[in-house]
Amino acid sequence: LPIEIPISYQEIAYCLDKSLTKIEAALLNVLEQTPPELYADIVNRGIYLAGGGALLRGLDKRLSDKININFNVAEDPLHAVARGTGVALKNVDKFPFLMR
Question: Which CB contacts under 8 angstroms, 24+ apart, belong to 11-14?
């Protein structure tokens, strides 16, 4: 039978910590390989989080603190990926690198 067991935010955060640490390491690795002119744009504009993971409370602050770049949650993050994909498909001639 289904049962309800209350769990705290801290318990969920503890379970996600290893995965978030891997995400931080991957971001740092990508940023280390980023050309200087693009890196400057990223530092100036920040990085936007999209998708369901963007809704994890405090993720933007944790990443900002760890990576020293401003992280923001996209407006309507659950639909942002689909909207962005739609824009890319409508403008595929401007994004040929997406069609590999």
Answer: 13/58
